[in-house]
Design a protein that fits this description.
alpha+beta; 3-stranded antiparallel sheet; 35% helix
């Protein structure tokens, strides 16, 4: 089995059995979504870094694409602080 380098990052393995659904929200633009953890693991693998996944799903955010340091996007996973 291939294990990815963690580099101190949170992986799906870190939250398995702690969350069934992973929510992502952005208070700046109002975008919200939720993802079943088992489906994320099926697609990306249990050792995938959480923020590699979140970078992918927020790639179309206008604020992120603008790369304006004064008005950055604010995507976050609010449930992580409860389990990690």
């Amino acid at each position: 089995m291939l294990v990815m380098s963690r580099d101190g990052a949170i992986t799906f393995r870190d939250i398995v059995d702690k969350l069934a659904v992973l929510r992502i929200t952005c208070d700046k633009c109002g975008r919200r979504g939720w993802y079943h953890l088992h489906r994320l693991i099926e697609r990306y693998g249990i050792d995938a870094k959480l923020f590699d996944w979140s970078d992918e799903i927020t790639a179309d955010c206008p604020r992120k694409r603008a790369r304006n340091l004064n008005d950055q996007y604010g995507a976050r996973c609010p449930d992580l602080s409860k389990v990690v």
